[in-house]
Amino acid sequence: HLATSLPLPSERDHLRPRIDLIVFMIDLKSKYSLKNVETSLAYVDASFFLGKVCFLVTGVGRVNACSIEMNAVCKLGETYCSPVLFCELELEGIRATTAQRLVRILRICAGHIPGVSALSFVSMMRKSDAD
Amino acid sequence: EKADPQKTAFLLRKAWTLYSVTPLYGFRRGRLRDYARLLSAFIAAEKQKGLAVEVGVELDIKVALSSLADIRGSEQDQAALLVQLSSRSRGSPRNSEDKPVWWGWFCSVFGDELSESVPEHFTCLPLFLSHGAESYTALVGSWFQKTFDCCFRRLAISPLNLSWMVAMWAGCKLDRAASAVELVFSVPRLAQPLDISYAIHPEDAKALWDTVQKTPGEITQEEVDVFMDCLYAHFHRHFKIHLSAAKLVKISTAIASAHCDGIVKILHSQYLPGVLMLLTELAISQIQ
């Protein structure tokens, strides 16, 4: 399910399936996309931040078209204790690999992988903070 | 060779194409005359090979290399190096003046970060600016690359860096009437490319920057963000367009203008060192 921003329209709440993972997409070429994500984060229930949120940053292939400072994005990941994935969606090969990564993360968040839960992502984030 | 505004006047109001240059190996300031002779011979030889530049009138290209002693920041900086190509058509009389056709200059303004990290025998002049036919730039560039084992790369300016420039320069104090502060945005992913030009009265821009900047002489990313966000919000209020989703491609102030393809024009001699310092920094970060 794709949405341009949060909150989702409440009229369709009863029709919506359970949400296992929220991927916030930030385009390094668009300052607006960062602002949009920051505003939308406020509408996310706190329970999602236990491994069911991740940030997908695209546009890393073009340093010269950057409108957002990399630090700002990394700080966002730290503040919300959620992983930040970097990719370049304009390249077909990377699009495919990124999609596969997201599906793997989604399967874990949905509880399809025995022995691993979304909470593993949180402890992974904690570990890298300590390093 | 003390500060001579006449000498540096030619630098103003010209569109300069920017390059980053890696340190030059074996460059000797005392051999400028020799280098000029060698470069001249190189250009003549390339012309013979048929890699000629100008079609039509037979032109003799004269090369002059000189130092611009006052274009530097700290004591560690090397003085700027100017290369000038002039032409004289073969038909014209001996005492007729040479017409300058191309300028290129290397400089370093507070480029200590780079010069402190290079070994001996290397000369650091990381910023190169050229004005004139691209074919001459290619000739001069390839001679320097062959002779001093260095590497030239076009220096692009990201929207992030352009917004730093417009915030910094719009906030500068100017005594006489200044021109408008202009930002040009390119809107992506449309069938027909669309450019949006946003012009702001220079006094309004300076007043906005003055309310944002906390410590005079210091600028932070947060302050630049607040400045730009105010401009975006104002535009959105009137036109319902989010400029922050478009690509900032060109900025123009009374001090200088800059385009994302790496083309700048410096308009005010007082702020020349400040502009060069910023550009030197960009060149160094592209090299490293």
Descriptive key words:
heterodimer; A: 131 residues; alpha/beta; Rossmann fold; 4 helices; B: 288 residues; alpha+beta; 2 domains; eleven-stranded antiparallel β-sheet; two-stranded antiparallel sheet
Task: Say what oligomer this is.
Answer: heterodimer
- Distance separating the two termini of chain A: 36 Å
Which series of helices and strands of chain B comes N to C?
HEEHEEEHEEHEHEEHHEEEH
Question: In angstroms, what separates the terminal alpha carbons of chain B?
Answer: 32 Å
> Into which percentage range does the β-strand content of chain A fall?
5-15%
Q: Quickly count the helices of chain A.
A: 4
Shape of chain B: globular
* Mean residue pLDDT of chain A: 89
Number of domains of chain A: 1
Which geometry of chain A do the CA atoms define?
Answer: globular
Backbone structural class of chain B: alpha+beta
Q: Into which percent range does the helicity of residues of chain A fall?
A: 25-40%
Task: Lay out the secondary structure.
The complex is a heterodimer of chains A (131) and B (288).
Chain A (H helix, E strand, L loop, with lengths): L21 E6 L3 H11 L11 E6 L11 H10 L4 E3 L5 H18 L9 H12 L1
Parallel strand pairs in A: 1-2, 2-3
Chain B lengths: L4 H5 L5 E7 L2 E2 L6 H17 L10 E10 L11 E10 L9 E9 L4 H4 L6 E2 L3 E6 L1 H15 L3 E3 L4 H12 L10 E7 L6 E7 L1 H11 L8 H19 L7 E6 L3 E4 L3 E4 L5 H16 L1
Antiparallel strand pairs in B: 1-7, 1-8, 1-13, 2-6, 3-4, 4-5, 5-7, 9-10, 9-11, 11-12, 12-13
Helix pairs in contact in B: 5-7
